User: Which sequence fits this backbone?
């Protein structure tokens, strides 16, 4: 049960971020962080595809890749905030989401039927 709640939380965060990126609501922040403006479109699409992949039941390797890509994205997000000199509190949402993602992945392994 806790795995489903955590997975839902992670999916919500990535889906919302994907929609915000595609709507152009994150462009200014991404540019401030040093990324080109068009990166928001790329990352927005990737986030939404990642959410779809973690919920599709047929191909376990797609789920694994999505979890890995999400983890890399969250590490990159936290690292970017820290490296440009933002306060550590700016990286806290990414670190918290990463903790939920890792817990989801770890709990998922217990119930998987490969």
Assistant:
């Amino acid at each position: 049960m806790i795995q489903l709640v955590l997975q839902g939380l992670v999916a919500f965060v990535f889906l919302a971020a994907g929609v915000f990126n595609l709507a152009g609501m994150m462009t200014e922040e991404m540019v401030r962080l040093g990324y080109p403006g068009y990166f928001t479109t790329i990352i927005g699409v990737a986030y939404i595809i990642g959410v779809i992949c973690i919920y599709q039941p047929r191909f376990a390797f797609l789920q694994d890749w999505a979890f890995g890509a999400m983890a890399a994205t969250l590490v990159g997000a936290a690292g970017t905030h820290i490296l440009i000199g933002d306060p550590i509190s700016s990286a806290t949402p990414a670190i918290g989401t990463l903790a939920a993602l890792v817990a989801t992945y770890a709990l998922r392994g217990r119930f998987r039927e490969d």
Q: What stands out?
A: The chain has one domain: 2-111.
